[in-house]
Amino acid sequence: SPSRHPPAMQRLARVAPHVVRATARAPLARATALVPVTARHTAARAAAAPAEWRRLFSSPADLLKEKHDSPDKLQDTYHLAPGGDADKRAFNYFLLGSGRFMYASAVRLLVIKFVATLSAAADVLALASTEVDLSAIQEGSTVTIKWRGKPVFIKRRTDAEVADAMSVNVSELRDPEADTDRRQKPDWLVLIGVCTHLGCVPLSNAGDFGGWFCPCHGSHYDVSGRIRKGPAPLNLEVPPYKFIESDKLLIG
User: Fold this and answer.
1) Domain that holds residue 14
2) Which has the closest alpha carbon to 220: 237, 196, 190?
3) Is 79 a catalytic residue?
4) How far apart are CA 220 and CA 214, in angstroms?
5) Sign of torsion, CA 39 44 47 48?
6) Is 1 part of any domain?
């Protein structure tokens, strides 16, 4: 009670205003103490910045506008990449060129191997050509051989048959073709024995023109293998061939 402790209460009343004022001043003192530290840090960062930056940021706006018409013209020289070494650049070019050369060589090998797989084997190429002995074929007769799964007619023509084939007016033919364009020698005629209508095999030395006759639909070919009558649209095909000797023929 006040009667029992008057001196203590009096001392508390005297000290309380000072405590309140000190407590109120403490945040302000701390904030004030931070100002010199912040200013020192700012000054230190400004001193560490490049001289060009200090000049730009300290220059008036008119000076910046006069020297630099557009912000695109400002260059950050502080962060520019250093120039390359000429020796290293040459080495890099060498590595790049070598890599491209090796890549091109690898692609070339792959292409060669791929093309090689597409070409026929030697045994297949051997079957693609057929050698025929002509010495046993009599004049005026026709023999049939097999080449690539197709019949081939080899006819040894007489002089009369050659003259008859030469006398035909080519302009009147359905498939105009001269006799000289269908043979290499006048007396030898080589034809693929497949009718150009529907693929039947014509009969030799038959028909209205003494050449070949297709019994399937009645196509008539002359002694040069040209279509003369019937539904066939084209002449009998001439295969690739050559005379390797006077009495030997290579078909294919």
Assistant:
1) 6-77
2) 196
3) no
4) 7
5) negative
6) no
Per the listing, tokens 């520019």 go with 80
One-letter amino acid for residue 79 of the chain:
H
**Helix segments in the chain, DSSP class H:** 6-48, 51-58, 61-67, 86-118, 122-128, 159-166
- pLDDT tens digit string along 188-221? 999 999 999 999 999 999 989 989 999 999 999 9
Tell me, yes or no, whether 57 and 90 share the same domain.
Answer: no
Question: Which band of pLDDT confidence, cut at 50, 70 and 90, is reported for residue 181?
Answer: very high
Q: Both 246 and 133 in a single domain?
A: yes
Q: Is residue 212 part of a domain?
A: yes
pTM (2 decimals)?
0.51
Residue type, 19: V
Are both 71 and 154 inside the same structural domain? Answer: no
**Catalytic-labelled residue, pool 5, 41, 68, 217:** 217
**Residue positions counted in the chain:** 252
Q: How many domains does the chain have?
A: 3
Tokens 């038959």 -> residue: 206
